[in-house]
């Protein structure tokens, strides 16, 4: 193999190295990882000492000491990971049911609180029933692999989450341009008679861009062309819609989306995933979704916390109001400073820089100034769209936001971004 220039390499270069077995590949990759550490561009896996909080203590590997940082890399949008009610409910369930479910859901691992959560999340999402998974990733891959095969087609927005793409490995896949209804319609028209099931799959809110799918129009198109619609509500739940119920509520089409998938790991503050649909589809998944059948049911403590998390979203709309106050303030100031935020409309702020090296440098400057942001580089996004990714929480204060804005302004000017 040719020698790689480690300073110009990206993760893409290590996917497949000709003639390198797994150990050799790991050895070559380790040199790249070491070079990134040397440049202080290693901003993955920063270790929190306090969980997910608006201000967190991390163990700074550059100084080997704790560092306080404004945390803008969490999907814990409403800070429910630390809400007294979700903690108390989790502890109560832990005491009553123990620390694990003990079995897979079909064969002994289904408790009354699992059924309660299935019903509660289904109602929250305007569907008849729901099935629970151990992660959002598992919900998407597990349901899609159980539903679609070679006679079907999944029609995906180009920017859907990786778990959806992975879930479509056993079926035919067509991509349409991001949020582009004309491109979707073209594919639907071509696919008219060819496939048994046509399933359009979109994210409600896109995880790297923070924009919203035109779900109302997508549902209309699906009806015309005899397709079904699935939406991944990972970043929409708790954030958009009048009552935080997500994208169908935002567009006032609750009950009209065939399959609503989501994760419990973001605004709901715990871990796990779900697929909500009509009763018959949920029952089919009980017996044909291998990630459900062959994986132990979610832990009672998590289920207890989640039941209460949904109550909190319903009872405490002020959390969502605070989040939106923060979003509006941050957005206005970033735009005033001249940053490119793409089409972001929600709590996810892509700060598009378009140069991998500058993104890493910006991340380093922010880190040194006590702001924890993520970096998103090629091949996760095209090189010209390389970016910082910041996300806001309800509990960020004006002081936290200003600290981040000041650091971003400094980095932006120093690197010629604004
Ligand atoms: C859009 C989207 N779907 C699914 C997932 C997977 O969820 P989980 O982290 O619960 O596995 C994520 C993020 O992690 C996501 O951003």
| Amount of helix | 40-55%
Structural class: alpha/beta
Distance between the termini: 40 Å
Number of strand elements: 14
The arrangement of helices and strands along the chain is HEEEHHEHEHEHEHEHEEHHHHEHEEEH
Number of self-contained structural domains = 2
Bound molecules: pyridoxal-5'-phosphate
* Rg for CA atoms: 22 Å
Named CATH architecture of the largest domain: 3-Layer(aba) Sandwich
Would you state the CATH class of the largest domain?
Alpha Beta
How are the strands of the biggest sheet laid out side by side? 4-10-9-8-7-5-6
Biggest beta sheet attributes:
7 strands, mixed
Global outline: globular
Number of helices: 14
CATH topology call of the largest domain: Aspartate Aminotransferase, domain 2
Percent of residues in β-strands:
15-25%
CATH homologous superfamily annotation of the largest domain = Type I PLP-dependent aspartate aminotransferase-like (Major domain)
Poorly predicted ranges: none
Mean of pLDDT: 96
Polypeptide structure, described:
With 418 residues, this protein is α/β, with parallel strands linked by helices. The chain folds into two domains: 45-74 and 317-414, Aspartate Aminotransferase, domain 1; 84-315, Aspartate Aminotransferase, domain 2 (3-Layer(aba) Sandwich), CATH 3.40.640. 40% of the residues lie in helices and 16% in strands. The chain contains 14 helices and 14 strands. It has helices at residues 22-38, 84-97, 112-124, 136-147, 162-167, 181-190, 215-225, 247-250, 279-288, 290-293, 300-315, 317-337, 356-368, 398-414, and strands at residues 47-48, 55-60, 65-71, 129-133, 153-157, 172-176, 198-203, 228-232, 259-263, 273-277, 348-352, 371-372, 374-376, 387-391. It has a seven-stranded mixed β-sheet with strand order 4-10-9-8-7-5-6. It has a four-stranded mixed β-sheet with strand order 1-2-3-12. A three-stranded antiparallel β-sheet has the order 11-14-13, with helices on one face. A hairpin with a 4-residue loop joins β2 (55-60) and β3 (65-71). The longest helix has 21 residues, at 317-337. It is globular, with a radius of gyration of 22 Å. The mean pLDDT is 96.
